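Shipment paperwork, digital attachment
Item: protein structure file
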Amino acid sequence: MELILNLSQLEVFMDVLQALHSHRSIRQYHSDPIPQEVLDEILQAGIRASSSGNMQSYSIIVTKDQALREKLFKPHMEQSMVVDAPVLLTFCADFRRMRKWLELSDAPMNFDNFMSFMIAAIDATLVSQNVALAAEAKGLGLCYMGSTLANCDQVGEILNLPEGVVPVVGYSLGYPSENPEIRDRLPIEGLVHQETYQDHSDEQIKAIYADREEAGWNRYMAYPELRKMIEESDVENLAQIYTKLKYTQSSHQDFSQSVLEYLNKQGFMNQ
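Attachment content:
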């Protein structure tokens, strides 16, 4: 079958590719508010994302209020864009809405387990990326924050999330006041496997991470505060930055415990 694209379809296709290849994290923003019609447009595009069983087991919380964003500053690990960006978006795994519908419909209450959380978390993540792409197409910038899941219990309390709802993905959103370099990515041969998984040899691993070793190290050393932290530690390479300074075992264990406890509190750990 021959695929024929007209000129307008081709232009849209090229715009999407350009947007994808131009993505970068934006941490500095102009104070200009995002017009409501623009916000509505990107959110409408977002909810067209694929969803397991078309259940759309997620909710999106739009936070503009300055006082509320200041409360979120600490659980978001005091990242400046939390208070500087005009909008925070929090994408939540949400089976509360569906559970209520099931109850009203006299249907079994099956979505109270870890598998249900995973389904809803994937739904929330998919819609977050749709919204991100739509936002960048409208000239907005954003920065994903891993603190949304890491401190989901604290974020959930501030956002008044009821049982059945867990924040999993969040980012700041606004008009960029910076133009950072596009960050490096691992080579495609290190990420894409043909037909089945092909485990990498030690030599292949070294080749996959060779450019990252240099680019990542230079990036961290370019920031005076990070450089000082590195030089005062026993860190010798990029891999050690990740595991000795950024993502320590103890911090991940603590985050894991708090997330699991919150999932239980929110009704996602029934056996």
